[in-house]
Amino acid sequence: MYKYGIISTASITKRFIDGLRQAGDEVICIGSRNIEKAKQFAINNNIDKYYGSYLEVYEDKDVDIVYIPVINNLHYECAKDALLHKKNVVLEKPFTITPKEAKELYELAKENNCFLFEGVKNLFVPSTKFVEDNLNSIGNITHITTAQGIKKPFPEGHWMYDINQGGGAYIGSASYVFHYLCYLFNSEVSNLDGTYVPSSNSDLICNFSFNLGKIKVNSIIDMSKDLDNKCIIYGELGKITIDEFWRSHHVIVETSDGRVKEFNDEGNEFVHDSSVWHKISYY
Fold first, then answer.
1. Helix (H) or strand (E) holding 250
2. How confident is the model at residue 273, as a pLDDT?
């Protein structure tokens, strides 16, 4: 069992805590820059300790792992501070804003013998294993499409509309596409290109394409409207449709000979992340 300290009372934190507890881990403290928010969050979620700063979480001797779901442009700073305090880190996606920041964090984790992990949960949910097991049934892959579109009721001026704070459709959500498909096909991204529709200070919609070896991928991320939210992998002998591929609980495999296989799963997707973290010293 690991003991977690969490910084920030972001909306995703409640689901993360539920997943950890189902996996048998413990959340022992919550930190916020507003101590009243931390206190209320701790009361609402049965957490014993709360702090009015992130530093106090890093300094808590009982914390094994720090979970960091702060706004995107603070990921590097907060992860660095936690690692300097020799704390293992689970860092929300996107990992960092720049490759230079990511490299520095990896090196710092190694120097301090710390576990460092980006919380991209779709690699570890059971549906992903089902997709892997059925890729051969659709023959050679011809192309892939992905769509992510959830109308987010962010108020005007919210950081998600500010690229300088790590907001926007691409920075906010494209990592799910790259992680998922690079993992499934064990290939690196090439020939990346795209267009976007701007909001006031970032991209509201982005369309981008890239190659995974010889496979062409076309993707759209839309922060202004609801889309079908699917990844569809097309092969010469059929297709695989993954609903909400960033946390998928439902997959359909359809082959040209008329066979249909279906996968359904329920529950908190963060449970499966935690089971992987128990097996790794640092990433």
1. strand 250-255
2. 62
DSSP secondary structure, 7-31, as one string = E---TTHHHHHHHHHHTT-EEEEEE
Handedness of CA 54, 58, 62, 64 (dihedral sign): positive
Q: Token pair 């997707």 is at which residue?
A: 269
Q: What is the mean pLDDT of the chain?
A: 91
Written as one letter, the residue type at 10 is: A
Tokens of 145: 């499409």
> pLDDT tens-digit profile of 85-139?
999 999 999 999 999 999 999 999 999 999 898 888 888 889 999 999 999 999 9
Q: What is the mean pLDDT of residues 229-252?
A: 96
* CB-CB contact of 21 with 27 (8 Å): yes
Under 8 Å between Cβ of 161 and 202: yes
Chain segment 204-237, per-residue pLDDT in tens: 999 999 999 999 999 999 998 999 999 999 999 9
How far is residue 36's CA from residue 125's CA, in Å, rounded to a whole number?
35
Are residues 60 and 7 in contact, defined by beta-carbon separation less than 8 angstroms? Answer: no
Strand partners, 250: 264
pLDDT value at 167 more than 50: yes
- C-alpha angle 19-73-223 in degrees, rounded to nearest 5: 70
